[in-house]
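debug: dumping io for the single-chain case to check the tokenizer round-trip. Nothing else runs in this session.
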Amino acid sequence: MRVEDHSNKSLHYFHACAIENRVDLREYPDERPQGCEDCPKRRALRLLPSAEDDKELRLNIGTIIGRILTQHMPYFKLTFEDIVKWHIPHSILLKCHQSPL
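debug: decoded output
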């Protein structure tokens, strides 16, 4: 009986690029400030979303639902396509649009 090798070929392709750090963090110290995260309760409170975070999340979800309705339901597309926000702005938006080179 003859044994044949039927192993699969593994071809790996990848794309890599380097992007300059666009957010300037030089104003922040390298060492941890005194009293920072000194107790688990304070650390947990910093990780939990604030009321402002909840408000922003609700606005963003509303924007995403508007996009979905406009893309998949003809009535909403005809009626609301021109007023739906297609991009959710964020604090470093302008820096992200700069060329990496």
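debug: round-trip ok. The helical segments are 40-47, 51-72, 74-80, 93-96.
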